[in-house]
Design a protein that fits this description.
125 residues; alpha/beta; 5 strands; globular
């Protein structure tokens, strides 16, 4: 099973890091990387996406607001929020984000979330 993933982070350095991790993972199709949520939202509305990795603190729309808007869409992707501020995990829980990872994250943390998503969705098929 291959999952379709996008990444959103306004930090160019961190966007390069997460996209590099995702590109190297077996079973992951990186469909896009976006420096802001507005472009990512448009992409998700027009293309099937399974999983979104999004920064929380962004200038245009926060990752929390972005995730909440994604969850309003029919056939919405799951959202994994990324932040250097652990306190945002409560907000992530409130909107029922798929997961929350504290920055700086590791390849193993990203892989753990992706593998859990794959396992859970294989059972659902």
């Amino acid at each position: 099973m291959s999952i379709r993933v996008i990444a959103v982070d306004n930090s160019e350095e961190l966007l390069v890091k997460i996209t590099g991790i995702l590109k190297e993972m077996n079973g992951v199709e990186l469909c896009g990387s976006f420096p802001e949520a507005i472009g990512a939202m448009q992409y998700v509305k027009e293309n099937p996406v399974d999983l979104v990795f999004s920064d929380v603190v962004m200038p245009d729309i926060s990752g929390i607001t972005f995730a909440a808007k994604l969850y309003e869409l029919p056939n919405h992707p799951e959202v994994v929020l990324l932040s250097g501020i652990p306190g945002f995990s409560l907000e992530a829980w409130k909107i029922r984000a798929y997961d929350f990872i504290v920055k700086p994250y590791t390849r193993a943390q990203i892989a753990k979330v992706v593998n859990r998503f794959v396992r859970e969705n294989e059972r659902a098929v």
